Fold these 4 entries.
Entry 1:
Amino acid sequence: MSRLALIGPSWPLRGGIARATTALAAALEARGTLGGFFVPERQYPKLLFPGESDTDPDACPRLEYAQRCFGVFEPWTWPQLAARLRALRPDALVIPFWTAAWAPLEVFLTSRRYAPAVAVVHNPADHGATLPARQAARAVLGRCSAFLCHGRSVAAALQEPFPNRPLAVHPLPSGSTGTRQRTGARARLGLSPGTVAVLCFGLIRPYKGVEVLLEAVARLPHELPIALLLVGEPWGGLAVSLRRRLGRPDLVGRVVSRLRWVPESEVTDWFAAADAAVLPYLSATGSAVAAQALGWGLPIVASAVGGLTDVVHNDVNGVLVPPGDPDALASALARLLDDHLRSRLAEGARATSARWTWDGYAAELEALAGRVLAGDRGCGEENRA
């Protein structure tokens, strides 16, 4: 049985990558294949993080076996991590990749050949990546021996530059959800019993198409009993323009918004109150929010882009629309007023979520590492002897 060393963000860091990495560590530990879990004491300097904070102690559980022993932007701490890896002597390293910000550390680790590296590729490069960021991504991924992806679009993007690497695709599991206390949650958010509430949740960045969503809601007839729940911290300077748009007459009274980071202790209310979720992305490699929504049994209205089409199936667990089309999006939202359709899609959402578990995800990763260790054709360029 392989022993895997997992290096990535966890408690007290917030965000989907930290939650996913923590859930993977717990699944590997339960299966007896986690040799070590190494997490940063600090991640981004304030200068490089445009949000309020990158920590939330409730965002993911604090695992007692997690070893906090380095800073992502503190290279003088990296030898301490390296020493722990040398002492552990794992069969393979597992590193999540989603941003060039972690690239210097990950190049440092994968260049030292402690063991072959398997990358869990959330994004093959940052959204809107500059040329240096794309080069940094290539430097990391070129040193990895195999890739675990969450969607076919990411797999295709990796197969072109790295055609002979072992690769697996497994959607992100939903994980656990809170207790669904719908009536109380809706009352706290001021939703009337007959209103269909559609949730747009998560960090708000330009590629997520929130402006298109607001225009779609504005085009719906005022008499329709539908409300948008818009929840998340705007990235950079988006907050000003979003608040200005929300204040216009065509949206007043139609949107319940929280334009800030919502701590984990408040997340349950938003999902419990919702009847459906909406992901109006202009581009996407995947979405942890989609997995979360499916876990809550929420139908999803989503743009037909990237990895979203791997988890949202039209007329099965949601409705797919062309990206950047407010009329098509408005029409899809209006369809959710059909109670029968919404109930059928909710059943599909629950069935979809049940197929993907963290145990199965961990097993897929173990099998992928096993292929590398068995001498599969795909070896990272920098890991070949």
Note: DSSP finds 14 helices and 13 strands in the chain.
Entry 2:
Amino acid sequence: MQLSELEIGDTTTICSMDKIETKFRNRLMDIGVYEGADVTVVNKMAFGKMIVIEVDDVEVCIRKSDAKRIDCK
């Protein structure tokens, strides 16, 4: 399952971020989005093209196209 498939309020654990290019993956890891992290989908914005996730009490907005590359349980 990809992060982009979750609905608002769903919580999951990130399993793999291998499909994301290294530079962007490192940026995500700097703000707490990493393999094994528990994330909650808080909101979907801009006609579903942006997804707001919460990880470690921090809200992060990512593109849906990037969320499709993040595998989770």
Note: The chain has a mean pLDDT of 94.
Entry 3:
Amino acid sequence: MDLNLIVQQNIWWLLLIYVWATAWKAWALWIAVKKDQKVWFLVFIILSTAGILEIFYIFYLSKFTKPSATNKK
């Protein structure tokens, strides 16, 4: 089967996955920046996991890390 045909037949699914992954990535990047976690920021920028790694970070790992000292009020 031709790749162009596959893309044309599934364009809405591909767009949905792209929007889904981008939303989770943006949220995870925001949290990593607020917590001054440069390593996680780079991991999210480099790896594309359709939101799976980002969701794990947001709901599990970010709960166990303390906010950076510069963000305390």
Note: The helical segments are 3-9, 11-34, 38-46, 52-59.
Entry 4:
Amino acid sequence: MDTHNSINELIYLIAFSKLKSINEIDKKKILIQLGSAQHVFEYCKASQALHHIYWPLDIAKREIDFITKHAIKAISILDKDYPNRLIHIDDAPLLIYHKGKGNFQLPYLISIVGTRAHTLQAFAIIKDLIEGIQHLPIGIISGLAIGIDTIAHKTAIDFKLPTWAVLGHGLDMIYPTQNRKLAIDMLEKGGLFTEFTSKTSPLHFHFPKRNRIVAGLTDATIVVETDTKGGSMITAGLAFKFNREVFAAPGKINDPKSRGCLSLIKNNLASMYHDPIHFLEAMQWPIPEKPKIRKQNQPMSFDGDPISQQIIEFIDIHSPVQEAYLHEHFTLEPALLAAKLLDLELDGAIERQAGNQYARKID
């Protein structure tokens, strides 16, 4: 805190942030106008119309005990180290809680978002992107959810880039629980953000609210895969509203996981994401001296085996494909189709996934 009496001011800030009777936009305006949360409290108590508002000061004091014990930093919108991009959105949170060691005031920050039920291609897109921008002093923001968020955080760590998760609950827990180790790993170079105090559960309506922070913290949001509804579409819409750059990977026109991305591109809410060089050029960010061009999967030729050629082309179009769907499409004996699939898998052309699905293997 930058205020002279920091602990006392923080008590009023936490209590003010938890008031339900004033929306976030008005809270921000009032706090900036009066200069401190204690001044806001004194103003309310002196006002006949506002003196009845209950300020949860006891809860705020307990929260200070919690954040002190767990080395959590409470950053006020009045502080000089408040995230410099987030402060410009109208409903920026008065307080944001941060745990971690990373410097989040980096020259470049992007968010990577998408569906929980992603395809194999998502791994390749995210790896290719992060590998192609690792030369920059850049950080990766996402939401720690299963799926695209998890891939983004893990890939950033693999390439030794700082990554932050914005949570939809307090810092006394990690949700989903299976990402607890990932969250701990992120603390070394990045960290965790939330606007919620401890004992705040991950309720469904917290996550759309959380998404405005994901969008507001960054210069650009990249949507990898998503349907037309969900948190990723909310984040993309907010980023567009905040005049940030939005990109969407196009995917296949008949794939539900690409419908949201295609909708964003169609409605001019997002530019098409093609590859890291295209992204860097669009953002007018420095391009590496020797950019690495990832080899795309080349069409595989099976001149002596037209059935295998047909199978690989079919999987190319529909990947990932249920094995039952392959049996329906190809009028082959089950044993013969199984043998063809095994040969393609051994050749490194396809990959068997959970749920008896087959997809092209990405190098």
Note: Confidence is low (pLDDT under 50) at residues 1-5, 295-300.
